[in-house]
Amino acid sequence: MKNYEHIFFDLDNTLWDFDKSSILAFDKIFDLFHLTDYGIPSAKEFHKTYFTYNNQLWEQYRQGKIDKDFLKIERFRLPLKDYGIYDENLAHELGESYTDYAARLVALVPNTMEILTYLKNKGYKLHLITNGFLEVQTIKMQASGLDKFIDVSIISEEVGFKKPDHRIFYKAIEKVGGSIDNSVMIGDDLSVDILPAKEIGMFHIYFNRKQIPHNETLDCEIKDLIEIKNYI
Ligand SMILES: [Mg+2]
Fold first, then answer.
1. CB-CB contact of 127 with 177 (8 Å)
2. 200 touches 220 (CB < 8 A)
3. What separation in Å is there between the alpha carbon of 70 and the centre of ligand 1?
4. Looking at the domain assignment, is residue 1 inside a domain?
5. How far does the centroid of ligand 1 lie from the alpha carbon of residue 147, in Å?
6. How far is the CA of 192 from the centre of ligand 1 (A)?
7. Among 104, 130, 147, which residue terminates a domain?
8. How far is the CA of 132 from the centre of ligand 1 (A)?
9. In angstroms, rounded to a whole number, what is the distance separating the alpha carbons of residues 128 and 120?
């Protein structure tokens, strides 16, 4: 086993249970904005509609085709439209309110604290590389207590490049004073977190929680964070 020093984690759906906190936030805004009065059957239904649009919009955001402010509102404007609701104001308010709640409703992936404690005790430096919004990621880190474990957070908005762009990985390694050889990347998204790490020769652990089939040859693949112990 190599002498790794720097472990880089993705945040959303790797440590932070984004899907879970997103559902919790939908329950909140559904009640807060009385969305049943608009004919939307349930928070769960609304979330389902939102989820598909959100993924599509995030892909466009990663590619630099749309900006953050557009994404925040559009991901509500489109699902509202599906229910025949054309209300720019409501889309805007939902967008703001959702972003706020989703960051504060703490939901961590199982074994997050256990594995971070283990790695920290072993002397590794732990860092984040995330494409999430700066203000949101900071709140999440503090609200969940993750900030106590993380040395350096590399946030795409600050660096100017988003994953899977190789440059954000190089910037991250440079920022922490590490090297490709002594760094490890851990994330839940094969094409955004793992393949770029593989391409630049960085040791990678694919957190494939949902056991999504693929044909890539990878350094490691796990379905529970605790399995990281087997490799580093
Ligand atoms: Mg992720």
1. no
2. no
3. 21
4. no
5. 17
6. 8
7. 104
8. 9
9. 14
- Residues spanned by the domain of 137: 6-17+108-230
Last residue of a domain, one of 70, 104, 138: 104
One digit per residue, pLDDT tens: the chain, 232 residues? 578 999 999 999 999 998 899 999 999 999 999 999 999 999 999 999 999 999 999 999 999 999 999 999 999 999 999 999 999 999 999 999 999 898 889 999 999 999 999 999 999 999 999 998 888 899 999 999 999 999 999 999 999 999 999 999 999 999 999 999 999 999 999 999 999 999 999 999 999 999 999 999 999 999 999 999 999 9
Question: Ion ligand 1 — residues with CB under 5 Å?
Answer: 10, 12-13, 188-189
For residues 211 and 226, membership in a common domain is answered with yes
The residue whose two tokens read 């004919």 is 39
This prediction has a pTM of 0.89
Going from the Cα of 84 to the center of ligand 1, the distance in angstroms, rounded, reads 32
Q: Which amino acid is at 52?
A: T
Give the single-character DSSP code of 16: B
Exposure string of 30-48, with b = 16+ CB inside 10 Å and e = fewer, is beebebeeeebeebeebbe
Q: Ligand 1 center to residue 20 CA distance, Å?
A: 13
Together in a domain, 55 and 67: yes
Q: How many domains does the chain have?
A: 2
